[in-house]
Amino acid sequence: MRIIDRQSPRKLYIQLYDILADAIVRGELVPGQQLPTEETLCAQQGVSKAVVRAALNELTRKGYIKRIPGKGTFVQHAMESQGVWLRVKLTENILDFGLPWETEVIQKMLSVAPSDLMELFALETGHQVFKVSRVRSIDQVPVVLETSYVSHDLCPGLPLEDLRGCSLIDILHEKYSLPITRVADSIEITALEDKEAELLKKKKGQIALLADRILYTSNNRVAAFIRLISVSEKHRISYEAVRHPGD
């Protein structure tokens, strides 16, 4: 089981939730298996009980685990969706301003996955990925810094693509026929670091909205990781309710 990365900007309980949920999905933790105690998880991950409880509460809410008073916490299959369920709309921009974008590609290169993403791209030889950094502007004012890491072997021609006016998700789907079967999103508040502030023309330390998106293809393979840092004062997060087929 992976260990929480304290260098990552993601909140500790979200990391722990992802670690445990991923272990259940991959079959490392099987239905009926008892989870370690809160004390054991605290010791293993080096976190407080508050972090562990927040992660377990979310796992319980999503149906990955169940708690039996006096006995412990046990793995169960994720609960089947019934009727109308809520999902993040699969568009490239989690932050949708409803206005025309101007896009500047500032970096496009073969790279090594950052340390906090190496587990995600574990199947990549040497953890090599395509890194694409773009600044999105509205009326010539930078509002979003987008940094994407895409699996090297899944999109070998990506460096040749014109990424100024097209959706990365559309390229993955339409040009490389990658079925995106699962999307994991997290959103939190962050503070701009030197390079981010420079690109977005803001002061270092200014508060910004950070949104991470992981795109999974078949066999739970990570196709891409997208990080958006927004400094716009107007945020809109798009969701859609969809009736599950057969309901």
Properties at a glance:
247 residues; alpha+beta; Arc Repressor Mutant, subunit A; Chorismate lyase; 2 domains; six-stranded antiparallel β-sheet; two-stranded antiparallel sheet; disordered C terminus
Description:
It is a single chain. With 247 residues, the chain is of the alpha+beta class. The chain folds into two domains: 64 residues, Arc Repressor Mutant, subunit A (Orthogonal Bundle), CATH 1.10.10.10; 157 residues, 3-Layer(aba) Sandwich (Chorismate lyase), CATH 3.40.1410.10. Strand 1 and strand 2 form a beta hairpin. Helix 1 crosses helix 3 and helix 2 packs across helix 3. It is globular, with a radius of gyration of 19 Å.
Largest sheet: 6 strands, antiparallel
Query: Number of helical runs?
Result: 5
Give the overall shape, derived from the CA principal axes.
globular
Helical residue percent? 10-25%
Rg value: 19 Å
Structural class: alpha+beta
The level 1 CATH classification of the largest domain is Alpha Beta
CATH architecture of the largest domain: 3-Layer(aba) Sandwich
The SSE order reads HHHEEEEEEHEHEEE
User: Could you name the ranges where pLDDT drops below 50 across 5 or more consecutive residues?
Assistant: 79-91, 241-247
Provide the CATH topology of the largest domain. Answer: Chorismate lyase
The tally of structural domains comes to 2
